[in-house]
Amino acid sequence: MNNFINKLTKFMYGRYGVDDLYYFLLIICLIIIILNIFIKSSILTLIEFIILILATFRYLSKNINKRKKENKRYLYIKDKIINYFKYQKRKYNDRNTHMYKKCPKCKQKIRLPLKKGKHTVKCPNCSHKFEVKCSKDEKVKVEIIK
Ligand SMILES: [Zn+2]
Predict the structure, then answer these.
(1) CB of 53 within 8 A of CB of 26?
(2) How many helices (H) and strands (E) in the chain?
(3) Which residues are found with C-beta within 5 Å of the ion, ligand 1?
(4) How far apart are CA 7 and CA 3, in angstroms?
């Protein structure tokens, strides 16, 4: 038993191992396996195998720098997607009191209170001034207190 552990340790030495992308690939594979129980598609089985081979390849890879770059790219894309949905959720929750505009110069997203009419807005990021038109006033939610 000890000999086996020694051999395994020697085999794994200098290999990449697990990271966020590895777990993501396994989760995707698991979802496809569960879906495939009901669908029973040979194409999905092939995709499962490809994902498993890819995850195993990355796990056992000795090109650590390349795997780190792949993981970094994955985390960057994941962050962008999560931030997009957070922004949409916030925009939706504020729909009656605020509007969101992008600065035409630096593309910074700016949250503005709803006030009917034309307004000049100064970007807090680059100090660029631009016009904003607003067609609706702030709606204050009426709450019933019992
Ligand atoms: Zn700006």
Answers:
(1) no
(2) 4, 4
(3) 103, 105-106, 108, 123, 125-126, 128
(4) 6
Q: Where are the beta strands (DSSP E) in 19-97?
A: none
- Distances in Å between the alpha carbon of 133 and those of 101, 112, 116, 118, 130? 10, 11, 8, 5, 10
Spell out the domain ranges in the chain: 2-93, 99-138
Measure 77 CA to ligand 1 centroid, in angstroms.
24
Stated pTM of the model: 0.75
Cα gap 60→64, rounded to integer Å: 10
Per residue of the chain (146 residues), what is the pLDDT tens digit?
789 999 988 888 999 999 999 999 999 999 999 999 999 999 999 999 999 999 999 999 999 999 999 999 999 999 999 999 999 999 999 998 999 999 999 999 999 999 889 999 999 999 999 999 988 887 766 667 77
Residue 92 in tokens? 């939706």
Q: What's the gap in Å between 126 CA and the centre of ligand 1?
A: 4
Burial letters 40-65, b for 16+ CB under 10 A, else e: eeeeeeeebeebeeebeebbeeeeee
